[in-house]
Amino acid sequence: MHYRVYSGPKGSTDVSPLEKSQLLFKEFAMLDDALSWARHLELSGRIPLLIEGDDGTRLDRRAIINALRVGMREQLDR
């Protein structure tokens, strides 16, 4: 299983299927690793635009942000 994290500069809009082939992406074997990379992107001034998995997983920019926020809340609750 592979998960691809597509990224862009701050202010980027949602990804259309045609634009996807022109975007940079990094590939991971696990969804947790892909989400960790998405968090890294946010901290470095870029934004994660899309996470797609071979299993049909598809997280758009808003879903990624929500997932990262839930993860942050869980860490704070510990």
Question: What report would you give on this structure?
Answer:
- The chain has helices at residues 17-20, 31-43, 61-77, and strands at 3-9, 24-28, 46-53, 58-60.
- Helices cover 44% and strands 29% of the residues.
- The protein has one domain (3-77).
- The protein contains three helices and four strands; from the N terminus they run E-H-E-H-E-E-H.
- Strands 2-1-3-4 form a four-stranded antiparallel sheet.
Shape type: globular
CA(first)-CA(last) distance: 30 Å
Strand arrangement within the widest β-sheet reads: 2-1-3-4
The domain count comes to 1
Fraction in beta strands: 25-35%
Give the integer mean of the pLDDT values: 87
User: How would you sum up the major sheet?
Assistant: 4 strands, antiparallel
Approximate helicity band: 40-55%
Pattern of helices and strands: EHEHEEH
Provide the low-confidence segments as ranges: none
Query: Treating each run of at least 4 consecutive H or I residues as one helix, how many helices?
Result: 3
Overall strand count: 4
- Which structural class matches the secondary elements? alpha+beta
Rg measurement, Å:
12 Å
